[in-house]
Amino acid sequence: MLRGLYTATSAMTTNNKKLDVVTNNIANINTTGYKKDLVVSETFPEVLIKKIAGSNDMMDTDFFKGVEVVQNGNTYEMKTEGGFFRTKTPLGISYEKAVNFAVNEEGYLSTYYRDQDGNIDTSAGYQVLGNRGPILVGNGQLEVNDRGQVMVNGNIVDNLVMITPPGIIGTLNSGVRLDKIETNHEQGQVYETDNKMDLAIKGRGFFQVETPEGVRYTRDGSFKLNTAGELVTDEGYRVLGIEGPIVIEGAELAVSERGNILVDGEYIDQLNMIEIVNLRDLRKDGDNLYRLEDGMELESQPFRGEILQGFLEGSNVDSVKEMVEMITLFRNYESNQRMIKAYDDTLQKTVNDIGKV
């Protein structure tokens, strides 16, 4: 009963945060270069549940029907009906009937997710456990057979499947929790403004601007000139070129696709564009700016996109999808409210009935 209350409450808390994110996305539909946020939630670890007075004797492995293994390049997808896979999460060990994994940078088997380009990323994954603990593959040749056995260079090193006693009847978790908020950096629609100061980025990359807190990154190219003739953002932050802040002294401004800046036909500087590889380490910093998360190192590569003069990039928020998501969240929230009320009424009735005995 109380577990049901915890489950419904955790779902309401997560839904409330998702609603905050969705409404913020909708509010920024018309914000130049805005990138929508996504809430990543996860369930609490799946724990085993057991029948009262159930046997602790291990299941006869003769009844084990094996596992379904699908290999796709460097990743594996596995399912089983005869046991459980285990993953080590920050909240404890979770037991699953299916697991997807790859080898992480440290050489261990780990769950993963795919970034917006479809690339495998194990940096935020959880270690997949064998019967002996974490499984180290290193640089060896990995194979997994239909018995769940893990082989490295042809040698069996562990088994991924935990065979449980007959008394185990399934798993149970305590609901969902907010894991993190991530930003979707997909390209927004580019539209023409005919303002020579407006610049849009086609492809990956960021403008670099100078703020009192240090260098920040932005996709918002709605620039203007300050009283000193410097190219600045709407908030007054100076846009950086290769030589530093960009000073425009002349009548005719032209910016090439590579970011070269010409004033009255004369080259003066080049926009200091940057293409950030570790986008997932960027954090929004207000004023449509981004900064690198504390303690993380910048991973960058040469800018390969194009600069479009007289254009701006719109937000990548799909208003219809966000509205549908908001309605769904409202309904889920109301459903969990009704569930909590039902649990509360049942508990109250139980207490009153016990008091009459």
From TrEMBL:
The keyword NAD does not apply. Residues 309-352 form the Flagellar basal-body/hook protein C-terminal domain. GO terms for cellular component: bacterial-type flagellum basal body. It is found in: Bacterial flagellum basal body. GO terms for biological process: bacterial-type flagellum-dependent swarming motility. Residues 5-35 form the Flagellar basal body rod protein N-terminal domain. Its main location: other. Keywords: Bacterial flagellum, Cell projection, Cilium, Flagellum. Pfam families: Flg_bb_rod (PF00460), Flg_bbr_C (PF06429), LlgE_F_G_D1 (PF22692). PROSITE patterns: FLAGELLA_BB_ROD (PS00588). This is Flagellar basal-body rod protein FlgG.
